[in-house]
Amino acid sequence: xxxxxxxxxxxxxxxxxxxxxxxxxxxxxxxxxxxxxxxxxxxxxxxxxxxxxxxxxxxxxxxxxxxxxxxxxxxxxxxxxxxxxxxxxxxxxxxxxxxxxxxxxxxxxxxxxxxxxxxxxxxxxxxxxxxxxxxxxxxxxxxxxxxxxxxxxxxxxxxxxxxxxxxxxxxxxxxxxxxxxxxxxxxxxxxxxxxxxxxxxxxxxxxxxxxxxxxxxxxxxxxxxxxxxxxxxxxxxxxxxxxxxxxxxxxxxxxxxxxxxxxxxxxxxxxxxxxxxxxxxxxxxxxxxxxxxxxxxxxxxxxxxxxxxxxxxxxxxxxxxxxxxxxxxxxxxxxxxxxxxxxxxxxxxxxxxxxxxxxxxx
Length: 362
What we know:
Helix 5 (about 115-125) packs across helix 6 (about 140-185) and helix 10 packs antiparallel against helix 11 (about 285-310). This protein is mostly helical. The radius of gyration is 28 Å and the shape is globular. The protein has helices at about 10-20, 25-45, 50-70, 75-110, 115-125, 140-185, 190-200, 200-245, 250-260, 265-280, 285-310, 320-330, 335-355; strands at about 130-135, 135-140. Helix content is about 80%, strand content about 0%. A two-stranded antiparallel ribbon has the order 1-2.
């Protein structure tokens, strides 16, 4: 019986290469996979909020971790990431310790003063004491009573349980975000390699060049947005407390700052809150001063702070911002509001990167 001939080295390598050869993945399966991924994210959008927020914070802090690790190469990267993580936690705890009691007190006071606030607003809207509603004259006192009864009925009809459940979900999401932030900071290089592994090898160089353009833009946008929120809240707190001396200044300042996260609609809501606070002032000059302050604050953000910290990389035409804002809210809710501008800017960079390439001949 003849023994089978063993394959020689070069021939064995050619056969192995022939067996491992595959075709290049065309564009339409990738587009279909991205569409399926988008639909999946749409259905689980409610659970994405802590992931996105923690990812954005880690995206901002990761360069600091890498820079410190280069200067302290004797330390493992996880130790440097742990130091940055605890430093971030310490800043959050200090902020909560300083403003938390005042904010909670403001919330309790606003709940207690809600009937008086509604009556004050209705008094400004109807100085005569009566308001025409659907052709019927109703006194401001009766309308205020009806509004309060409607709110009580709404809360007792099951909405109160929904609000309480939402509060528990927010607390859970907060602690989940802290855990996710730790994972993102500790394993950022591993996550980056894992993302690139998901990309077909023939497209990895192209995606790598693309991320070199998109990454700095997104990092500057998220960092700049954090600076804008901090600047807005700090200026509002200083002026509301030291100059205007309006009640519930810490809560109002934090709301005005956080509303900067929502494009277009957020500044309008914050202006409405300041106007509502102006209604509570007995001095007309003080109310006018509040309105002038919010206008000056808006101009300083739009003309100075915003362009300085955000730059032109994330600039999108206001019409495109409105479209992205509305479509993001429809598809992803709160998450869509937060991601409307960075997603639109990313699409702009991707298209610019693609259009710069030369067309294939033939």
